[in-house]
Write a structure and sequence with these properties.
This protein has 581 residues and is an alpha+beta fold. The protein has three domains: 147 residues, no CATH class; 148 residues, Jelly Rolls (Sandwich), CATH 2.60.120; 240 residues, Jelly Rolls, CATH 2.60.120.200. The chain has nine helices and 30 strands. Strands 1, 2, 3, 4, 5, 6, 7, 8, 9, 10, 11, 12, 13 and 14 form a 14-stranded mixed beta sheet that branches. Strands 15, 18, 19, 21, 26, 27, 28 and 30 form an eight-stranded antiparallel beta sheet that branches. Helix 1 crosses helix 2, helix 1 packs parallel to helix 3 and helix 3 packs antiparallel against helix 6. The longest helix has 29 residues. The chain starts with a helix and ends with a helix. 37% of the residues are buried. About 19% of the residues have low confidence.
């Protein structure tokens, strides 16, 4: 009894702070935890939120109507699975007979507060219900979102268009291939390339420019990317493949301007600044600063020994001078094979680890292609059932993955081991972050002891587009839920990029660590320890909230591997899992 009274006093004090918009993050955690496990307090919170909105709306009805409706529509879109959301509001209005709006202007002026009160009553109840039944999220961004239920709906808004924010692609080309580079950490296949200088000490880099030209660069080389139609070769060798749609692609050298009028050429600039162009297919126009122009046809070449035409020397095009480019295909195949062999070697090390709880390598079984095989010593009791998701290409050639796209796509698993410390790792490709939360591995529901691993589409205030946030949710059996996050690691321009993600919980050191591509990007204190964590029945790439209302959390992307260890692995081990030397 005394505990109940104490909880109620604490709840009322926190509720007052919430309504005054003065609630701190940790206090918000406590408020939700108190309401979540006490039906009386949950009802009180729901009623108070509704009343608070009605009071605020009532006094600023005319100014707030647009804002309130916009918020209601936003919430409706974010709850697409609740098909009755909008119809419930409309029904509530209809039941109050608002179809007969007064025609007299004086009556109309008094009609708006009346209409708004009805809208508030219907929608606030639904919004409060959604708020109280949704999974608790206690990071700063979610605290702010929850606060909006009591503040954003009631704050005056000016009648003017809100600024719209869209991500801008600042790139002019994309990396199509990167082989044998010392700068592997800088140049990754699929990354966009912005204007600026590139330096290669060795290896090959292939770029595809947005206007259609293809450029192969052999290291050592230095090149200045000017725009999507022009580059400056400072030193080194390049070859182009310019289709008709990209005619006009230009390469500047220290003493010439080379305009590719179609197909294939080779250009070299020596360390001394001397340059030459060889035309293997098509036609090229060359110019110098003095205004001289010349067309060079297939089979011809020119050495630019100086600025004047008299210093140019005609030659015969020779592919032998660019023979190194012939090895790109062979090197590409070798690099892919080496990547796969490296993965097989790490896989063997993982399977020999006594701390391995579950290992899904996401390779299809010929006999049972709809079963996701667990390769750990725990055997078939952890095999997963594939629902909807389809097999696809993984992070490198020869590696498979499962593609998750539809709301029904998932893999059902049941992992029953109790974990004190643990490490989880995955290869994941994100096509887009369609929802606020996008599942990697989520336990059914969210209860004491549970682990939630997902990617949030964090939406900053005033920004319509989102950025990827890693979210590890841990529901302490004694102290309640807590989210551990890292952002940003993904944005719209990174769509289709493969990442290796890992999370580590060390109960002995009381730390939580998050890793991206083998690099530890964040380590923080384990704020709410637990005697153990448990996954149990769960979904990979989706979520079963274990309640009537089912918010969408399915992943739009692919997963190529998931492993779980009953130990906090060291940093070097996690680097090896990410195939980092």
């Amino acid at each position: 009894m005394n505990n109940n009274m104490e909880h109620k006093k604490q709840f009322e004090a926190l509720l007052a702070l919430l309504l005054d918009n003065k609630l701190a993050d940790h206090e918000f955690d406590a408020l939700i935890a108190l309401a979540e496990h006490n039906p009386e307090l949950k009802n009180q919170l729901s009623e108070q939120l509704t009343i608070d909105n009605l009071i605020r709306q009532r006094f600023e009805a005319t100014d707030q109507l647009d804002n309130f409706v916009n918020q209601t529509v936003t919430t409706a879109f974010e709850n697409k699975t609740n098909k009755r959301f909008e119809s419930d509001i409309i029904s509530a209005i209809t039941n109050n007979q608002f179809d007969k709006r007064p025609a007299d202007d004086n009556i109309v002026r008094g009609y708006f507060p009346w209409l708004l009160t009805a809208l508030s009553t219907a929608a606030c109840a639904l919004l409060s219900f959604h708020f109280l039944t949704a999974e608790p999220n206690h990071d700063k961004s979610n605290h702010a979102e929850a606060t909006q239920l009591t503040t954003q709906l009631s704050e005056p808004t000016e009648h003017k268009a809100k600024p719209q924010y869209e991500y801008q692609d600042l790139g002019v080309a994309v990396i199509a291939n990167a082989i044998g580079l010392h700068e592997n950490a800088i140049f990754k296949i699929g990354d966009s390339v912005k204007p600026g200088q590139l330096h290669l000490s060795e290896g090959f880099l292939e770029l595809e420019f947005y206007r259609g030209a293809q450029l192969k660069i052999s290291g050592p080389a230095a090149i200045n990317i000017i725009n999507e139609e022009r580059v400056e070769l400072i030193s080194g060798k390049v070859m182009t493949d310019v289709p008709k749609v990209a005619i006009g692609f230009t390469i500047d050298t220290p003493n010439s301007e080379i305009i590719d009028l179609g197909t294939e050429i080779g250009v070299e600039v020596t360390k001394d600044g001397l340059s030459q162009v060889h035309v293997f297919e098509g036609l090229v126009e060359v110019r110098n600063d003095l205004g001289y122009q010349q067309l060079i046809e297939k089979g011809q070449a020119i050495n630019f020994s100086g600025e004047t035409r008299s210093e140019w020397r005609d030659d015969i095009a020779s592919k032998a001078k660019f023979a190194e480019f012939n090895t790109i295909d062979d090197l590409t195949g070798t690099a892919i094979s080496q990547q796969h062999q490296k993965w097989l070697s790490v896989k063997a090390e993982v399977l020999a680890d006594s701390n391995l709880v579950t290992y899904y390598d996401f390779e299809p079984s010929a006999k049972k292609p709809r079963i996701l095989t667990n390769l750990s010593s725990h055997g078939d009791k952890h095999h997963g059932a594939i629902v909807g998701a389809r097999w696809s290409q993984g992070p490198w050639q020869g590696k498979h993955a499962l593609k998750f796209k539809r709301a029904s796509d998932r893999v059902r698993v049941d992992i029953e081991e109790k974990l004190t410390s643990f490490t989880m790792a995955t290869w994941v490709k994100i096509d887009s972050l369609d929802r606020r939360y996008n599942s990697l591995l989520l336990t059914d529901g969210y209860k004491p002891g549970d682990i939630h691993w997902q990617i949030s589409n964090y939406r900053a205030q005033g920004i319509n587009a989102g950025i990827g946030t890693i979210v590890l949710g841990l529901f302490s059996r004694e102290l309640g839920p807590k989210n551990y996050t890292y952002e940003p690691f993904f944005s719209v321009s990174d769509s289709g990029t493969w990442y290796h993600l890992a999370t580590r919980v060390d109960s002995e050191l009381k730390t939580v660590s998050l890793f991206v591509n083998g690099e530890k990007v964040k380590q923080t204190k384990l704020m709410k320890p637990s005697d153990y964590w448990l996954i149990g029945p769960a979904s990979i790439g989706n979520w079963d909230p274990k309640r009537l209302q089912k918010p969408l959390r399915n992943l739009n992307g692919s997963i190529a591997e998931i492993m779980i260890f009953s130990q906090a692995l060291d940093d070097n081990y996690i680097k090896r899992l990410a195939l980092i030397d």
